Amino acid sequence: MKLEYNIDFVEDKSVKANIKKAISLLEKSFYTRKEVSSFFLNPFEISVLNDIAKINNIEIVFLSCNESSERQIFVANPYSNEINNKDYISVLEFKKNNIKHPDVLGALLNLGLARNDIGDIYVGDEICEFVVLNKDKDFVKFNLSKIKNERVNIDFKKDNILNLPKIDYIDNRGFVSSLRLDNIVSEFINLSRSKAKILIQRRLVKVNYQIIDNPSKIIDEDSLISIRKEGRFIFDKVIGKSKKDNYHIEYRKYK
């Protein structure tokens, strides 16, 4: 009996490859009826894997170190009804001065970790926290001693809870001639449609965590759109139409 699923709707090749890798873990758990834990997944991948698990009656639990975390792992057919995230993932922390999110991610990747081995990263005013799989926690603690030009002293966070700030938004309204991606991007960052089209074709735009290089893709309400070097936006909804038949939309930008 094979696992039942269809992922033809996934447009981003790298995301599809990630999902296939995660499905292989689900299959292992499905056939052996033993516990299997995954690498870190983004919210879109989590949704797909959760649907596949439900269709195939596989018990699955998603774990993170903060209920607002984007990146989570799954545990399929868990041995215990009381799952503790400390058994699978760990929060590490260090004091910092002039270190930013890309610096931390780059340092972890340079250690040899894959992107899927790394969870959410939080960079505060004085403290940086990040999440890794337990298989890597000791290696990172004892080998990550310098980020950028700054010496760091890595410790395990005792409560294993990742500190994530409340997300603030800037509310906006605007008009677009259609709900095509290039029109939406043009409105969001005040760019001509032709230049927005180039950004999309250069694979610099994500829609709901997938890279989309098709400028004519129609965007659904409540979609999260990330534009490289410009930030994140949520296309909330269409609230009406103008006399010229343009869409009047509401959207938010992450601060």
Task: Walk me through the structure.
There is one protein chain. The chain has 255 residues and is α+β, with helices and mostly antiparallel strands. It has three domains: 13-83, Ribosomal Protein S8, Chain: A, domain 1 (2-Layer Sandwich), CATH 3.30.1370; 86-156, 2-Layer Sandwich (Alpha-Beta Plaits), CATH 3.30.70.330; 169-254, RNA-binding S4 domain (Structural Genomics Hypothetical 15.5 Kd Protein In mrcA-pckA Intergenic Region, Chain A), CATH 3.10.290.10. It has helices at residues 13-32, 43-55, 101-110, 134-143, 181-189, 193-201; strands spanning 36-37, 60-63, 73-76, 89-95, 118-123, 127-133, 146-147, 150-151, 155-156, 169-176, 205-207, 210-211, 223-227, 231-241, 247-254. The chain has a six-stranded antiparallel β-sheet with strand order 10-15-14-13-11-12. A four-stranded antiparallel β-sheet has the order 5-6-4-9. Helix 1 packs parallel to helix 2 (43-55) and helix 5 (181-189) packs across helix 6. The N and C termini lie far apart (49 Å). The model has no long low-confidence stretch (mean pLDDT 96).
Oligomer: single chain
Residue fraction in strands: 25-35%
Overall geometry comes to: globular
Compute the average pLDDT.
Answer: 96
Indicate the structural class.
alpha+beta
CATH architecture annotation name of the largest domain: Roll
Number of domains: 3
Radius of gyration: 20 Å
Please give the largest β-sheet: 6 strands, antiparallel
Low-confidence stretches: none
Q: Tell me the total number of β-strands.
A: 15
CATH class of the largest domain: Alpha Beta
Number of helical runs? 6
- The ordered H/E elements are HEHEEEHEEHEEEEHHEEEEE
Strand order of the largest sheet: 10-15-14-13-11-12
